[in-house]
Write a structure and sequence with these properties.
With 142 residues, the protein is of the alpha+beta class. It has 3 helices and 6 strands; from the N terminus they run H-E-E-H-E-E-E-E-H.
């Protein structure tokens, strides 16, 4: 399944998209050795990125021609994230310009490892070849 846009960091981490429809998302991820922390479990930053992308995909799933940018995110870590992980997200509420979402990361045994809520702003996609720094300037002045 395709995310609909190329995000180099997501590609680098190796996230796989399993569900992208109707306000719901599901991503799969297995941390590589360079994505682990000193306790030999998935680094919190990698888990937060997985949660962020999972929520963004849920927000975009109802309007795939739009992009989203993270406005705010709160994360709770419940237990170490080991082995293959599955993140499930959902769009809880949406306005014309904002999406309110949540996501949970589960280990291979179905145990919740981390949970997040996030707020995203819908933004128009840029034409191919336009630098993203221009888009961020536009967003900042909205």
């Amino acid at each position: 399944m395709n995310f609909g846009v190329e995000v180099p960091f997501v590609t680098h981490l190796g996230f796989e998209l399993a569900l992208f429809e109707g306000g719901h998302s599901e991503l799969r991820y297995e941390a590589r050795p360079e994505h682990l922390n000193s306790f030999d479990v998935t680094h919190g930053g990698a888990s937060m990125t997985l949660l962020d992308v999972t929520m963004a995909v849920a927000a975009r799933s109802v309007q795939k021609d739009m992009g989203v940018v993270t406005i705010e995110m709160k994360t709770s870590f419940m237990q170490p994230a080991r082995g293959p992980l599955t993140a499930k997200g959902r769009l809880m509420h949406r306005t014309a310009t904002m999406a309110f979402t949540e996501a949970t990361v589960f280990d291979a045994h179905g145990r919740a490892c981390a949970h997040a809520t996030g707020t995203f702003k819908y933004v128009k996609r840029l034409p191919v070849g336009v630098k993203s720094s221009h888009a961020l300037n536009v967003i900042a002045t909205d």
